[in-house]
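Example S7 (structure tokens).
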């Protein structure tokens, strides 16, 4: 995984970044150290209409149906003093208790789209179980594709573009896993219990394809 502050690679079990000293304590001081109960779609900024909320929730449920071991969350907020969306996403993915997510989907298998409505900017954070399947380039491309819609305040359309782009990336990675599973299992995955993630993504993607064809 990468440090949310300096973006240098660090071990996912590290208590703080060995490069810049960042730790969750730093963002706890800004956002609080208590767990936060919320849904996968949180509109703290109040920018979505009812129809848009219903449509976005349907998209999130469809994502979970396609990738049963993962979940996707979206947070709309207005931030006055924000270190960075990357740091906020890191904090929320660590402190968030997503009430509409089954316990079989831990936060380390989550993807979070954080949207600063006031700044019309967005960032993507994902759990360490996905570090073999997503990277900065993939998330940057997803946000960049949606950027024009964020600028126009078309929040639902922008979110739809991001979800679609990330889903395509995961689907493509699932096909790669089918051809070369070992390429997606680093030493830390084999020894620390996440080595089954490639197999699960591949299997779930195949089930989704069969449902679509049926």
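Recovered sequence:
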């Amino acid at each position: 995984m990468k440090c949310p502050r300096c973006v240098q690679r660090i071990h996912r079990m590290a208590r703080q970044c060995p490069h810049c000293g960042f730790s969750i304590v730093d963002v706890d001081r800004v956002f609080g150290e208590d767990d936060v109960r919320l849904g996968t779609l949180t509109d703290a900024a109040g920018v979505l209409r009812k129809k848009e909320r219903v449509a976005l929730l349907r998209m999130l449920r469809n994502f979970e149906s396609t990738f049963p071991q993962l979940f996707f969350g979206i947070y709309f907020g207005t931030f006055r003093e924000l270190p960075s969306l990357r740091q906020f996403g890191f904090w929320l993915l660590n402190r968030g208790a997503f009430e509409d997510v089954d316990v079989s989907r831990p936060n380390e298998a989550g993807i979070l789209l954080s949207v600063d409505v006031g700044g019309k900017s967005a960032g993507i954070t994902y759990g360490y179980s996905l570090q073999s399947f997503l990277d900065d380039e993939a998330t940057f491309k997803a946000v960049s594709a949606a950027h024009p819609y964020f600028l126009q305040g078309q929040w639902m359309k922008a979110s739809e573009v991001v979800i679609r782009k990330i889903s395509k990336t995961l689907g493509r990675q699932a096909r790669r896993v089918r051809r070369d599973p070992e390429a997606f299992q680093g030493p830390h995955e084999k020894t620390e219990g996440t080595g089954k993630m490639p197999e699960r993504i591949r299997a779930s993607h195949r089930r989704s394809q069969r449902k679509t064809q049926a």
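Notes on this example. The longest helix spans residues 155-179.
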